[in-house]
Specification:
The complex is a heterodimer.
Chain A (H helix, E strand, L loop, with lengths): L20 H13 L18 E6 L3 E3 L8 H5 L8 E5 L7 E3 L7 H5 L7 H10 L4 E2 L2 E5 L7 H17 L4 E5 L2
Parallel strand pairs in A: 1-5, 1-6, 1-7
Antiparallel strand pairs in A: 2-4, 3-6
Chain B lengths: L1 H9 L3 E6 L2 H6 L4 E4 L14 H17 L5 E4 L19 H8 L4 H5 L13
Classes of the chains: A alpha/beta, B alpha/beta.
């Protein structure tokens, strides 16, 4: 048919837009390493407007009053990193935290935590009625992990226990 | 992050990633993924841009609610203003980058994610 109308194309996110050539090639190779496996699935049991929501950030965010993430682990052995996690209360604001991730420019998150861990925005969505509650606690760990075993074995179960205790329904994971 | 998401989902919570690297995140088999074309370190948007941050979070939660097939990706429609130049790199190169510059024969180990075997750090 002549003169057909070209509709607006839905956006497809380009995973590599902001990366240099070497990093792009590395990431494209890493994509090929993922082996097919069964995908876990827990359906949402109720509308999101009735849910308690928690955020998990991989930016290595810690309260200034809490123990810092140990950057020396990675400096001593660049194949490793601190596998621990920190808990951030729901009312945490930028001035309360430091950001310890060593692979990103942390200056944005240091100016405004919501760039990577949108705790204030989640409270806004609670006030607007989009969700029932921002959970009492939210979580952060350092997301650069060539060796993820210690993180999965020693840290994630603690996060899951606390999510259960606080009766969280849904979790948003925010990489950096 | 995808591996952590899988564990949390398997424990009974409904989860979604907000990923700037959706191809990589999906390659590990995550249940739900909201893809966003933002630079590293600015997943939700620029400092002080509360409107964008709120819109991104709201769109992510909507995707969480709407995805009904395990392994689905929703590509969020946000455009990054190309005139907004940002430096996404840390002030100091990460230790692994400096190490590989000095020991390039280890690059295949890094690329294949097969690090040398040593005792792992544990949570104190």
């Amino acid at each position: 048919m002549k003169g057909c109308i070209i509709g607006l194309m839905a956006k497809i996110v380009n995973s590599y837009r902001f990366l240099d050539g070497i990093t792009s090639r590395m990431m494209k190779h890493w994509v090929t390493l993922g082996a097919p496996r069964q995908i876990p699935w827990s359906p949402l049991a109720k509308p999101i407007s009735q849910c308690t929501v928690s955020i998990v950030s991989s930016a290595a965010v810690a309260l200034k009053t809490d123990q810092p993430f140990d950057q020396e682990i990675e400096r001593r052995d660049p194949w490793s990193s601190d596998p621990s996690y920190r808990v951030l209360p729901r009312a945490t604001v930028t001035a309360d935290v430091r950001v310890y991730h060593m692979h990103i420019n942390t200056s944005f998150a240091q100016q405004d935590l919501n760039c990577v861990m949108p705790l204030e925005r989640l409270c806004q969505l609670e006030a607007l009625g989009d969700i029932a509650h921002s959970a009492p606690s939210h979580y952060s760990y350092g997301g650069y992990t060539i060796r993820p075993d210690a993180l999965l074995r020693d840290s994630v179960p603690g996060i899951i226990d606390q999510l259960r205790r606080e009766q969280v329904d849904a979790v948003v994971l925010v990489p950096v | 992050m995808g591996l952590v998401q899988r564990e949390i989902e398997a424990a009974g919570f409904s989860t979604i990633s907000l990923s700037m690297m959706p191809e990589l995140t999906n390659s590990v088999g995550v249940p739900r993924n909201a893809a966003i074309e933002h630079p590293f370190g600015l997943t939700l948007g620029l400092p002080g841009d509360a409107a964008r941050q709120l819109a991104v979070l709201r769109a992510t939660l909507r995707a969480l609610e709407e995805i009904s097939q395990p392994g689905s990706v929703v590509h969020l429609p946000f455009e990054w203003d190309a005139s907004e130049k940002v430096n996404i790199y840390p002030p100091e190169a990460p230790p692994i980058a400096r190490f590989l510059r000095r020991h390039p024969w280890h690059i295949p180990k890094f690329l294949n994610q097969t690090p040398p075997e040593v005792s792992e750090p544990r949570v104190p």
